[in-house]
Design goal:
15 helices, flat, single chain, six-stranded mixed β-sheet, 36-stranded parallel β-sheet, mainly beta
């Protein structure tokens, strides 16, 4: 069996194969063939290269190079085994004469030429190379033209050099050592990534003088990967302009050797050193001796953090982000031995110090007018910041800060920070899982820690006890105050404070979670406070025990736009006192267990004063609270939403009498799941006009038996938009509308046939829906169409959406007409005789409806049959987007009848139009002659 070999590169008719210890070069007999004249010219070119290399002092004396083309001519037509050669000149002329093998003992002479990276690296690994000029290196894309003589490489999108450690790594290193510096031309490079032994190639590379590298990444796991570079002079490796420089592990030691353009503006400098040896050559340099120019982001991880003192930035440099992370004290020992405020950073926007790096904060010096957009200190262990504990309060000058985040033991540093007296903070965030994280602060007096102006104040766990210690500007307005505590110990001290003793001034949004909810009575809000939102979340009764022990309407909140009480917090509603003129834009109560609302359920009906409400949302057991609420007599609810996914969620309210619950004037009423059973309990004024009535149920239930009601027994009055989804469609016959009602929209949607089973039991044309302007039927709800009766048999728009062929009922009024193709044609199309007068109307009332426009979206055309007839009047517009299944089956049903349609009112795909039967008419209803009217 023949084995198929794949070459890794080619040049014209020359193929290059990779063997375990060799490189095989074979002229391809099926590729390019050289004529006698071409062979002689190649031979002359080879000799010219040899003479040039001898003039340059490169001695070449392999015997086979002296052979002429004539000596190889006899081998041309025979099968010749590749021979192992001691040396060769890497030119097309030399390689075209016959198959050869190159080994680590083969000397490959490289004249000035262009080589692909794939070929170049295999030569480095498997031969002994000698440079006779400049090699122009380029990326090999398709494996072709791997040798390009006398070429220049101007720009490369990405150059990536990475070699695994192989058995021939010694050969590779020896070759790299022999390569003259700056003899590998890369030109303009966008991305340069060197790993492992390939890093030693860096001094050998020559870049364009105007080169601007977007990313330079060097990663050296072992010291030998950078051994040859470390002996180079400082600033001897020209890189020009570099946007992103990343040096990992031993490659970090190369930094002093790099020479950047004096006007270089770097986006990111990233140094990572897990061992002290990784940065030993940098640490031996003088302070501020390594020029890096302007840098936006500096990231120093591990022992690389110690190099901060060695870097010299441009005097006008503005650092977007400085991020130091050090897991060992030795990683920042160089910084910690310096004097406070001795490391000049200038202007910094974001400063992030993690673990031991947090201790370096006093050593840093910022510009006196600097504004820190973010200061983040993270210390999960005490020893990370123990050295700062002895510093005096307000001794660490950080100036103006927009966002301050202290995590773990770093929270203890808060009193040590000196903020500008006019500081205006966007967000202050503290988090401490253990009491020790804030132990040094708890002893301070109340109101002693100056924060100035703060927009968002977020405290979690043990940090909440610090709230009384903070001092805000007297004119401060807190946009968000968020307190979260899921253990009682987190708030033990603050709960001992007197009620209304913690001054927080004006608050726009207040969020209290867990045990932090109990803090609400302790807060003193400004008498003119106007709150956008108050949210209380309590999973346990203990979370709100302090509030429940207070008197009714004893906790002053002032004006509140949105009040959200979740779980046990719903029980606190009676304890809250709002301003007499307050208007609640939203009252949201969510309680999924009976225990969450047990206390408030004992209240008398209409005893809980909530005033004016715009949006009311009751979820779960909270639905039972609806009768308990006392709305303002002039209250107008924009949206009332009730949702209960279990029957027990409404067990209490179901005992109320029908039409006994007055929700006030409601514009939009949404009842979801079991909450739709409350519809008969609501008393809607006969003059009350509901803009949207939306009912939705996804469970299979017998609607009529549950309600025990007859048709048209549930009064809903005037409704502009009625939306029934899934099983709620079955309630349609039970609804009674106002006799003068004009419905803007009736929308019915059902995801399966079972969900409309009860409605389908009605007789055709018996479900009266009055005057409807727009009728939208989705999915299986299309089968309801013949059951509906419209006033005056008129509808402006009929929409049929997402109706598939399998959704149509098998014995429905639609499909009964098309049991066979012959019956379909007889029923729905004009006969082909001279006495054609129109269609035979289908049974069902809708075929005679006056419909102005029909829109069919992603639906089968079969849903249209039986709707249009000669009695249907003129159609203003017909829009249709078909399903894929229809596109291949139109021919089975021939044309579909549309009747009369106004000129320019047909909007369908061109490939579908020919299957429609219609008559075009003008604005006066007269037939338009001379156009394609398929009926004729």
């Amino acid at each position: 069996m023949l084995s198929i070999r794949t070459n890794f590169a080619s040049c014209g008719g020359i193929l290059f194969f990779d063997r375990p210890e060799y490189i095989e070069i074979t002229p391809n007999t099926t590729g390019k063939c050289f004529s006698d004249i071409e062979m002689e010219l190649l031979d002359m070119k080879r000799q010219e290269i040899l003479r040039d290399m001898k003039r340059r002092g490169i001695h070449v004396a392999p015997k086979h190079l002296e052979e002429t083309t004539e000596q190889h001519r006899s081998e041309k037509n025979g099968t010749v085994q590749p021979r192992l050669v001691d040396s060769l000149v890497l030119t097309v002329a030399e390689l075209s004469v016959g198959p050869v093998l190159l080994s680590p003992k083969t000397t490959a002479y490289l004249p000035t030429t262009g080589l692909s990276d794939a070929l170049f690296f295999r030569l480095l690994e498997k031969t002994k190379i000698v440079f006779g000029g400049t090699v122009f290196l380029f990326n090999q894309v398709d494996g072709k033209d791997c040798i390009r003589e006398r070429m220049r490489v101007e720009c490369r999108d990405e150059v990536r050099f990475s070699l695994p450690v192989t058995e021939n790594s010694l050969c590779f290193r020896e070759n790299v050592a022999r390569i003259p510096d700056k003899s590998i031309w890369l030109g303009k490079v966008k991305s340069l990534k060197l790993e492992k032994h390939a890093i030693n190639l860096l001094p050998k590379l020559k870049l364009h003088e105007d080169s601007e590298i977007e990313e330079l990444l060097l990663d050296a796991e072992l010291g030998e990967y950078v051994s040859s570079i470390l002996h180079a002079k400082e600033k001897s490796i020209w890189l020009g302009r570099v946007k992103s420089l990343g040096l990992k592990r031993y490659a970090a030691n190369i930094l002093p050797k790099l020479w950047l353009h004096e006007d270089n503006a770097m986006e990111e400098l990233y140094l990572s050193a897990l061992e002290e040896e990784h940065v030993s050559s940098i640490l031996g340099a003088g302070d501020r001796s390594i020029w890096v120019g302007r840098v936006k982001e500096i990231v120093l991880h591990g022992f690389a953090a110690n190099t901060l003192t060695k870097l010299r930035l441009h005097e006008d440099s503005e650092i977007e982000e400085l991020w130091l992370s050090a897991g060992l004290r030795k990683s920042v020992s160089e910084i910690l031995t310096t004097k406070d405020s001795s490391i000049w950073l200038g202007r910094v926007k974001r400063l992030k110090l993690e673990r031991y790096a947090a201790s370096t904060l006093p050593k840093l010096k910022l510009h006196e007018d600097n504004v820190l957009e973010e200061l983040r200190l993270d210390a999960e262990l005490k020893r990370y910041v123990s050295e700062i504990f002895d510093t005096g309060n307000s001794s660490i000058r950080v100036g103006r800060i927009i966002n301050l985040e202290l995590l773990g033991y770093a929270a203890n540093l808060l009193p040590k920070l000196w903020l500008h007296e006019d500081n205006a903070m966007e967000e202050f965030y503290l988090s401490a899982l253990f009491g020790e994280h804030v132990s040094s602060i708890l002893g301070t007096g109340n109101g002693t820690i100056w924060l100035g102006r703060v927009k968002r104040l977020k405290l979690e766990e043990h940090v909440i006890d610090l709230l009384p210690k903070l001092k805000l500007h007297e004119g401060n307005v807190v946009e968000v105050l968020r307190l979260s505590a899921w253990e009682r110990t987190y708030v033990f001290e603050i709960l001992c404070a007197r009620n209304s003793s913690i001054r927080v001034g004006r608050i726009i949004n207040l969020e209290l979670l867990g045990y932090a909810a109990n803090i609400l009575p302790k807060l003193w809000l400004h008498e003119d406070n106007a709150m956008e939102e108050l949210y209380l979340g309590a999973l346990e009764e203990e979370h709100v025990s302090s509030i429940l022990g207070a008197g009714d309407r004893s906790i002053w909140l002032g004006r509140v736009k949105r009040l959200k009480l979740e779980w046990y917090a719903a029980n606190t509603l009676t304890k809250l006192k709002l301003h007499a003129d307050n208007v609640l834009e939203e009252l949201w109560l969510n309680s999924w267990w009976k225990e969450y609302v047990f206390e408030i359920l004992c209240a008398r009906n209409s005893s809980i004063r909530v005033g004016r409400i715009i949006n009311l949302k009751l979820l779960g057991y909270a639905v039972n609270l609806l009768p308990k609420l006392r709305l303002h007599e002039d209250s107008e609810i924009e949206k009332l939403r009730l949702s209960a996914d279990r029957r027990e969620h409404i067990s209490k309210i179901l005992t109320e009498k029908d039409s006994s619950i007055w929700p006030g004037k409601v514009k939009k009423l949404e009842l979801e799941l079991f909450a739709i059973y409350l519809l008969p309990k609501l008393w809607l004024h006969e003059d009350n006009g509901i803009e949207v009535l939306s009912l939705s149920m996804c469970f299979q239930r017998n609607i009529s038996s549950i309600f025990g009601a007859k048709d048209k027994s549930i009064w809903v009055g005037k409704v502009k938009s009625l939306r029934l989804e899934r099983y709620a469609v079955n309630i349609l016959p039970l609804l009674k509308l106002h006799e003068d009602n004009v419905m803007e929209e009736l929308r019915l949607g059902s995801t399966n046939r079972k969900s409309i089973f009860e409605a389908l039991g009605a007789k055709d044309g018996t479900i009266c829906v009055g005057r409807v302007k727009s009728l939208r039927l989705e999915l299986y709800a299309i089968n309801i169409l013949p059951k509906l009766r419209l006033e005056d048999n008129m509808v402006d728009t009929l929409e049929i959406v997402n109706v598939g062929r399998d959704m149509l009922q098998k014995d429905s009024w639609i499909l009964s007409k098309i049991k066979t193709a012959g019956k379909a044609l007889k029923c729905l199309l004009p006969s082909n005789g001279d006495d054609t007068s129109g269609t035979i109307p289908a049974d069902g009332g809708c075929c005679g409806w006056k419909i102005k426009q029909i829109k069919m979206e992603n639906s089968t055309v079969l849903a249209l049959r039986g709707i249009r007839s000669d009695k249907s009047g003129v159609l203003d517009r017909f829009e249709y987007t078909h399903q894929e299944e229809d596109a291949s089956q139109w021919f089975r049903f021939r044309r579909v009848y549309l009747g009369e349609i106004k000129q320019n009112g047909l909007v369908v795909p061109q490939n579908i139009e020919k299957f429609l039967s219609y008559t075009l008419v003008d604005e006066e209803g007269n037939e338009v002659l001379g156009l394609n009217n398929p009926v004729h």
